[in-house]
């Protein structure tokens, strides 16, 4: 099962200038809990936004640059190649950015989406997906509080 995992604003905003536009500790905790021990597929810019590779995950980085090499990353040049590398992983995750989510949507069976209740200035967006082809199986709302400037809802979607 291939899962896309993302946090997106009400208008599918992901971030600006290769950074998130919110800080949601519960979302970070959920991301870590779900992705630890699995392959995480991402674009080069997403990988380079990390101060260092995330622990206990295999980083699969998609780039057009045939010369690109980075310690801590398995470098590939297509989504199909990335997915082939995850053979044996029961649940690899596609973690972004916007272009990688668009490439990954047709391959995905599940979407773990944190819907951030707000609108944001952004330059990267989560792709619109046809909700009649997906079923929302769980949603858990979290109100804003002293650690979370925005309310948000954890949504789990599975392909019908």
UniProtKB/TrEMBL annotation:
Its EC number is 1.5.1.3. One of its GO terms (molecular function) is NADP+ binding. InterPro entries: DHFR, DHFR-like_dom_sf, DHFR_dom. Residues 1-159 form the DHFR domain. It catalyses: (6S)-5,6,7,8-tetrahydrofolate + NADP(+) = 7,8-dihydrofolate + NADPH + H(+). GO terms for cellular component: cytosol. It holds the Pfam family DHFR_1. It is an enzyme of class 1 (oxidoreductase). Keywords: Kinase, NADP, One-carbon metabolism, Oxidoreductase, Transferase. Pathway: Cofactor biosynthesis; tetrahydrofolate biosynthesis; 5,6,7,8-tetrahydrofolate from 7,8-dihydrofolate: step 1/1. One of its GO terms (biological process) is one-carbon metabolic process. Signal peptide: none annotated. Belongs to the dihydrofolate reductase family. PANTHER family: DIHYDROFOLATE REDUCTASE (PTHR48069:SF3). Key enzyme in folate metabolism. Catalyzes an essential reaction for de novo glycine and purine synthesis, and for DNA precursor synthesis. This is Dihydrofolate reductase.
